[in-house]
Specification:
This protein has 279 residues and is an alpha/beta fold. The protein has a single domain, classed as Vaccinia Virus protein VP39 (Rossmann fold, 3-Layer(aba) Sandwich). Helices cover 33% and strands 18% of the residues. An 8-stranded mixed sheet has the order 1-8-7-2-3-5-4-6, with helices on both faces. Strand 2, helix 2 and strand 3 form a beta-alpha-beta unit. The chain is globular, with a radius of gyration of 20 Å. 31% of the residues are buried. The C terminus is likely disordered.
Length: 279
């Protein structure tokens, strides 16, 4: 099975085991939250211990496939009010027990409070509820704080670096869901990829959904590995990647016409355009 720069439709544990050791530079994912969301091919209400044990197997595979210094950005939301479980703490404890270095946590502030309807006890300390308008991005690394790379493959700007290094990220939630109950906004993935990887690195999303990680990785000159169980989501991801490729080719054609002296068709920058195989 060819894995790199492909949309792989299959069980994440079965597919990730086919990835070689020490191959991936950055993993970004958000697992099913186990709160009853309507995913197309996933039962999102497991027994909690079963859920944690399943994901612990996934984390072990992520650790295996990451290079030394490779990063793992794990997005997770606070759980519901009535059945609160400290899922972000449980995940962090699992990953630390496996030997991951816990680098930091990012607060993804979504400002979703306008639709709040559950107050608990109104204007009373009897039973007030805190409704989260944020999610966490927990960032880990394998064996080393540093990720080696060619300085020529650094593409984050000084302004981006200063802005992204503030761990409070206000990014509105994705409005175009494409049939998925909890898609990433592209801006969130763009920041993680630019801040934590070099051009040409391999970026993995083992719960790839509709392909936001794969699409942004492609747009920023990274290689991607996309895994998802749902054929419908994988089809959406493939179409997004085809659209991104077409847009990039149009932009390159425009630059080539306006600046023929750059010989854009044979330059190293043009070679970063990844080829997506038709299926």
């Amino acid at each position: 099975m060819e894995l790199v720069n492909e949309i792989i439709c299959g069980d994440c544990l079965e597919v990730i085991k086919k990835i070689p050791d020490n191959f991936v530079h950055l993993a970004i994912t958000s697992p099913p939250y186990n709160v009853g969301l309507e995913y197309s091919n996933h039962h999102d209400r497991m027994d909690y211990n079963e859920y944690l044990n399943w994901l612990n197997q996934v984390w072990m595979e992520v650790q295996r496939v990451l290079v030394k210094g490779g990063r793992f950005a794990l997005n997770i939301a606070p759980t519901s009010i009535k059945d609160f479980r400290p899922i972000h703490h449980d995940f962090a404890n699992q990953l630390r027990a496996l030997g991951f270095i816990f680098r930091t946590e990012i607060i993804w502030y979504k400002q979703t409070m306008r639709k709040r309807t559950a107050w608990g006890s109104w204007k009373s300390p009897a039973n007030p509820h805190i409704l989260p308008s944020w999610e966490y991005v927990l960032v880990f690394c394998k064996d080393s704080w540093s990720l080696p790379g060619d300085p020529n493959d650094i593409d984050i700007t000084a302004e981006e670096f200063k802005r992204f290094s503030d761990g409070y990220w206000y990014i509105p939630p994705e409005t175009n869901r494409r049939g998925h109950p909890a898609p990433f906004p592209e801006e969130l993935i763009y920041r993680l990829i630019k801040f934590y990887s070099y051009r040409g690195n391999a970026v993995l999303d083992m719960f790839g959904g509709t392909g936001t990680v794969a699409t942004v990785a492609y747009k920023t000159g990274r290689n991607f590995i996309h895994i998802d169980l749902c054929a419908e989501y994988c089809e959406v991801a493939l179409n997004r990647l085809k659209a991104a490729r077409s847009q990039l080719e149009l932009e390159l054609d425009y630059v080539a016409r306006e600046h023929p002296e750059l010989n854009i068709k044979s330059s190293p920058s043009a070679k970063q355009v990844l080829h997506l195989k038709s299926r």
